């Protein structure tokens, strides 16, 4: 699976992120909770440095809860707080403010000691494509559409959004690139829709998804598609699923394209169940 990002774009966004980093107190990094490792940018630690960071494991409505808890523990550190959220409903988002305050406590204490009363906290949002950056920013900006506009001495040509949390957020999120170095990462990104289907072979992708699901979630697969058994060869399982769904062409041939679209769609929509594709 040969997928790549044009290095010119990568360099430009990297530069932009570095510049924006100077303007903020903390970084909110969004990841897809179904693939907390694959949806991370390999250079994020280097980029963010020791700036306080909040990792939002977004789309947690689609995951296996206990595994998400494991990830939270695994990814947390002194400078990094990890929260599970659902940006569609807003669930979990109110934990952001306390997390930011905790991360910035020392800094705030220092400022207060200097006599500052009103402290504005600025954050920037980063994440790989499709992790939910726009949904997050829209949700946070809701009921508070008023943008703060340019502010002398702070930044030029940058829009900040005032959120109900009392935190100002840079309104354009930084797009990071994931790494596709190994096939598993590329597949995880493709399964979850982070890589456009147009550049993928959907039939192969669906086959690989069945292979994965029948290894880790055989019962969910059986239940969703009302199949009696899982076959050793994932292709046989895929065929059984296709037959159950009536994805057949003339002469009873399997319509692989049609079942592929159905499978990927249902997986992405959480219809096969709460599934996490990788473990810490
Ligand atoms: N199930 C679920 N879907 C979400 C959540 N957040 C975002 N999405 C969906 O994920 C897709 C990508 O979101 P978007 O905000 O455009 O991602 P961006 O590319 O990072 O800006 C959209 O279809 C969103 O509706 C969530 O918490 N749960
Ligand atoms: Mg977006």
Automatic annotation (TrEMBL):
Checking CDD domains in the record gives: YlqF
Show where the CP-type G domain sits: 11-178
Binding site residues for GTP: 58-61, 130-135, 174
Supply the InterPro entries for this chain: G_CP_dom (IPR030378), GTP-bd (IPR006073), GTP-bd_ortho_bundle_sf (IPR023179), GTP-bd_ribosome_bgen (IPR019991), GTPase_MTG1 (IPR016478), P-loop_NTPase (IPR027417)
Compartments (UniProt record): Cytoplasm
Cross-referenced Gene3D superfamilies: 1.10.1580.10, P-loop containing nucleotide triphosphate hydrolases
Q: What Gene Ontology molecular-function terms does this entry list?
A: GTP binding; GTPase activity; RNA binding
Look up the domain of life of the source: Bacteria
The GO annotation for biological process reads: translation
Q: Print the keywords alphabetically.
A: Cytoplasm, GTP-binding, Hydrolase, Nucleotide-binding, RNA-binding
Q: What's one GO-annotated cellular component?
A: cytoplasm
Entries under PROSITE patterns matching the protein: G_CP (PS51721)
SUPFAM superfamilies assigned: P-loop containing nucleoside triphosphate hydrolases (SSF52540)
Q: What does this protein do?
A: Required for a late step of 50S ribosomal subunit assembly. Has GTPase activity.
Q: Which family does it belong to?
A: Belongs to the TRAFAC class YlqF/YawG GTPase family. MTG1 subfamily.
What name appears for this protein in its UniProt entry? Ribosome biogenesis GTPase A
């Amino acid at each position: 699976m040969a997928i790549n990002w044009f290095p010119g774009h990568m360099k430009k966004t990297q530069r932009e992120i570095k510049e924006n980093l100077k303007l903020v107190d903390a970084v909110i990094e969004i990841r897809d909770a179904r693939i907390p490792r694959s949806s991370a940018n390999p250079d994020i630690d280097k980029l963010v440095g020791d700036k306080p960071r909040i990792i939002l494991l977004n789309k947690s409505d689609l995951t296996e809860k206990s595994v998400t808890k494991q990830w939270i523990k695994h990814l947390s550190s002194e400078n990094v707080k990890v929260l599970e959220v659902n940006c569609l409903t807003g669930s979990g988002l109110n934990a952001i403010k306390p997390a930011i305050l905790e991360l910035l406590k020392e800094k705030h204490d220092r400022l207060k000691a200097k006599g500052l009363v009103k402290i504005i906290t600025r954050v920037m949002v980063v994440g790989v494509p499709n992790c939910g950056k726009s949904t997050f920013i829209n949700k946070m900006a809701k009921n508070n559409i008023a943008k703060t506009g340019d502010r002398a001495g702070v930044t030029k040509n940058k829009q900040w959004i005032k959120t109900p949390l009392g935190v100002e957020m840079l309104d354009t999120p930084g797009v990071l690139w994931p790494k596709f170095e190994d096939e598993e990462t590329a597949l995880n990104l493709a399964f979850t829709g982070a890589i456009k289907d147009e550049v993928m072979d959907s039939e192969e992708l669906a086959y690989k998804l069945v292979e994965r699901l029948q290894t880790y979630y055989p019962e969910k697969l059986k239940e969703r598609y009302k199949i009696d058994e899982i076959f050793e060869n994932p292709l046989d399982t895929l065929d059984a699923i296709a037959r159950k769904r009536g994805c057949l062409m003339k002469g009873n041939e399997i319509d692989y394209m049609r079942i592929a679209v159905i499978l990927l769609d249902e997986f992405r929509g959480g219809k096969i169940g709460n599934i996490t594709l990788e473990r810490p």
